[in-house]
Amino acid sequence: MQPQKIFREKLKGTIGRKLLSSPQTYKLARQVFLKRSNFNFDAKRKMTSLALEQAAEAYQGKKPVAWTSAFFPGELFNLFDLVPFAPEVASAMAASLELAPELLRYSEEMGLATDSCSFHRCAAAGTSREYFPLPDFLMASSHLCDGAPRLFQYMARKYSRPLYLLDVPVTKGEEALQYVACQLEDIARDLEKKTGITLHQDKIEEVFENSNLARQYQEEVNRLRQNVPSPMGGEEGLGYVYLSFLGEGHPQSPVIYKTLMEELQERVEKSKKGVEDPGKENFRLIWMHLRPYHGSELMSFVEQELNMKVVMEEMNEVYWPPLDPGKPFTSLARKVLSHFDLGPAERRLQAIEKMVQEFKAHGVVHFSHWGCRQSVGSTLILRKKLREKGIPFLSLDGDCVDASSFPWGQARTRIESFQEVLEQVHE
Question: How far apart are CA 247 and CA 215, in angstroms?
Answer without folding.
Answer: 11
